[in-house]
Amino acid sequence: MSTVDLTFLHAPSVYDFRKRATLWGPISDVVPSEPIYDMYPIGFAVLSEYLERHGFRTRVANLAARMVRSEQFDAERFIARLRSRAFGIDLHWLPHAHGALEVARLVREHHPDAPIIFGGFSSTYFHEELIRYPQVDYVVRGDSTEEPLRQLMACLREGREPVDVPNLTWKDRSGRVHVNPQTYLPTTLDHIRLGFRQMVRAVIRDRDLLSYTPFSHWLDYPIMVALSARGCTQNCSICGGCAHGHRVMSGRSRPAFRDPEDLAADVREARRISRGPVFILGDLRLGGMDYARRFLRAIQGVSGPFMIEFFWPVTRDYAEELAAAMPGFIAEFSPDSHDPSVRKALGKHYSNEGIEETVRNCLAVGARRFDLFFMIGLPNQTPTSALETVDFCEHLLEAVDGNPRLIPFTAPLAPFLDPASPAFEYPDRFGYRLRCRTLEEHRRALLEPTWKHILSYETVWMDRDTLASVTYEAGRRLNRLKARYGIVSPEKAAETEERIERALSLMARIDHLVATRSPEEVEREMLAMKDEIERANTSTVCDKEELDVPLSWIRFNVLGLMRLGLGEVWRWLRRDGRR
Q1: Plot region of 420 (φ>0 → left; ψ -120 to 50 → alpha; else → beta)
Q2: C-alpha span between 148 and 167 (Å, rounded)
Q3: Which of these, 357, 274, 278, lies nearest to 312 by C-alpha position?
Q4: Does residue 325 register a pLDDT over 80?
Q5: Checking CA distances to 97, which of 69, 477, 486, 575 falls within 20 to 30 Å?
Q6: 261-275, 320-334, 408-422: segment of lowest average pLDDT
């Protein structure tokens, strides 16, 4: 393998998950990744493209996805064989606290002279604690680290100390920690590109398709994403990416947006590669209706499917504009609770009637489907309120004559409360009791035996035991409701019901072990149950396939790849997809 300037590494949530037995439960049921969060952040593609554009060679290695796909993949051996001037590790989502630090330790062991750079939301929030770990040399802070990272890489190439690099926390040769001012905060995102073309070419150059896949089953479900903004205007109390969270971590007082025509160009580029859905991240209306309409005009004529996020209710006029530009769009809306008092505590100020009208409007204009997401573990949410959400879902289905294009989901707020979210900063105000405050406490929590024990919080309305039992019961009720309305087949519903019962039984057995045995005995007993635990770790309260948009057997745009001069990719897709 030839030397590169920076290799991006994405770690699993817990590095040695294949040698451990953890009942992860439903924590990843409503996201594409596996319970060990094998999806790397979109920042990898953006940072890689930016550095390549400025003369640095990069590589991406999704260790988590490789480890999920094959028991034979030796991550440590792979790391040892890499040749790179420096290594970049994401600690964007806090559930990677264990794996990211362990991967950094292995890099330090096998490449003792290579600088190790961390970045991401969680890295930013915990930068002063993170830099104290011996395997961490640099932490690039903020939500837009392209230019600071470029400057740091220039310093590393030239052998200079990065005294003037903005947004950087670092150690000098003596081990002394420096915290450079956080002064880089772009007001627009005109400097970034999503880098789809560059990533595909990197696959060719490095002859390593599997390391670049965004998550383990991406070859079967090649969803693409398009980033519209960084920052937010909303203040959801449990979200670290809300307006308050961005002020805490980046000093950002207002969102920075992609130019809508550039965003549309990214979508066109994505469509040249994949026949899968393109998920446009962020509500287009955050930039105002003029911004949304400019994008919709620019995207006309591009084939779908498209997934569109809503942060608040949608009028019929806007739904019609979406349908005209993106026929058969897929709506993604997360009210989180049907209970107005819970939504108010969350910072979501709209009515149940607004939710219902949004569903009606989108289905009426021909939305291909409407995914509606609810959550358990919220401020002001009692067990009764959480279970009554299922009754509200039934009301909505009745209101649209049982239209199976409406697909409701429920899942726990797990495993951690977002750092920098208002609820994390002021837990008493929102009724939370935090069990984890520091990065190290979160890292250790990930080694607990079940998702219930890993939870970093309780609320004054639900302790961890109650939250877990309510989650399983709500999942059971919603599964039966979806079977009754034909959203899932009787066979799929029966499989989900069986998994819920298995998970409940396992949880009870593990609770007994925890109460009566030493930690070493618990670990030994759970390893004996590993196969049974693994069968209960995916699609617990719903079948993950419910999230997927059905695709034709041709999942990649072969002609588009050939036009890029990359026809060889197709042969690798066929070969590696069978591994």
Answers
A1: left
A2: 7
A3: 357
A4: yes
A5: 69
A6: 261-275
